[in-house]
Design a protein that fits this description.
Blueprint (H helix, E strand, L loop, with lengths): L29 E6 L4 H10 L22 H17 L6 E5 L2 H14 L6 E4 L15 H13 L12 H18 L4 E6 L1 H12 L3 H7 L12 E5 L14 E5 L10 E2 L7 H8 L14
Helix pairs in contact: 2-3, 5-6
Length: 293
């Protein structure tokens, strides 16, 4: 798996009463990210991608993304995910964070009901929302294809029309990591969010650059399906030792029958030769011979 996280905490624990020493923060024992179930917008986007329809339905672009509900399939996916999480975490979670988007709140409610977590402490946080796609849906087809073509080459820096870049979404994810380190060291934290937000926080934890982001999130291991469960652990899954750092990851999709094993998150070290190898992917501009002095 890519990249070892450089944490927002460290291995040692310290008495907070020792005012003369810097405050030490440590990560949650488990930070569990869950993508929402299939939404009605997912259905529409898949229909466009598969050529069933060529344009978004009339009036769709006027509906705020935050208001999109789950599809019937998405409801069932959430319930199955809740049953699986109940088996994995019979004691539940100390805190549950939920994106302010309707489909995330609907997923969270159905998962908690299926898991029997009726009295869980739930906090809604708008910072956990999906990447803002701005006016993408209201753009004409040619413009949408142009944006997606650029996005395939540069997924971090290409903005959506009046929306966000993935780098801005990734920057938002740092707030969750900082808060988790400040408030929930050694605890289990559950977060309901969105596909690109989970990609962003995974990339932030693993310190993925653009090239690794392109490779990893287009691989089966990095695919974030509806109701994908991505678990980050500061507790060694083998011996139960708490390290204070999110050093292990497991990405599963129970509703699709995909259950993976825990893997260590490894740091990618770059030598000057590695940097030049990456540079060689991009050719120099072909200037006319008389262009420069």
């Amino acid at each position: 798996m890519p990249g070892l996280c450089e944490e927002h905490g460290n291995d040692s624990m310290q008495d907070p009463g020792e005012a003369s020493l810097p405050l030490v923060r440590a990560m949650p024992a488990r930070l569990v990210m869950v993508r929402h179930g299939e939404s009605e917008a997912n259905l529409i986007n898949r229909a466009i991608k598969n050529g069933i329809i060529s344009e978004y339905p009339e009036g769709f672009s006027k509906i705020p993304d935050r208001e999109i509900r789950l599809s019937k399939l998405g409801v069932e996916q959430a319930r199955k995910t809740g049953e699986w999480l109940r088996e994995q975490y019979p004691d539940g979670f100390e805190i549950i964070y939920v994106s302010d988007h309707t489909r995330a709140k609907e997923t969270a409610a159905l998962v908690c009901q299926a898991a029997g977590w009726h009295d869980a402490e739930i906090r809604i946080d708008p910072l956990l929302g999906e990447r803002n796609w701005g006016r993408f849906a209201s753009s004409d087809q040619e413009r949408r294809e142009e944006i997606m073509s650029y996005r395939r080459r540069d997924p971090l820096h290409i903005p959506m029309p009046d929306g966000e870049t993935m780098l801005e979404t990734r920057n938002r994810s740092r707030e969750l990591l900082d808060r988790a380190a400040r408030e929930f060291g050694r605890k289990n934290v559950l977060v309901f969010s969105h596909g690109e937000y989970i990609e962003a926080i995974w990339a932030e934890i693993a310190h993925l650059n653009t090239e690794r982001t392109l490779e990893f999130f287009h691989s089966p291991e990095g695919d974030i399906k509806n109701c994908q469960v991505v678990e980050f652990a500061a507790v060694n899954p083998t011996d139960g030792e708490y390290t204070g750092k999110l050093n292990w990851v497991r990405s599963s999709c129970p509703q699709a029958g995909i259950i993976r094993e825990w893997e260590a998150i490894r740091r990618l070290r770059h030598s000057p030769a590695d940097l030049l190898e990456e540079v060689q992917r991009y050719p120099n501009l072909d200037f006319p011979s008389d262009f420069s002095d």
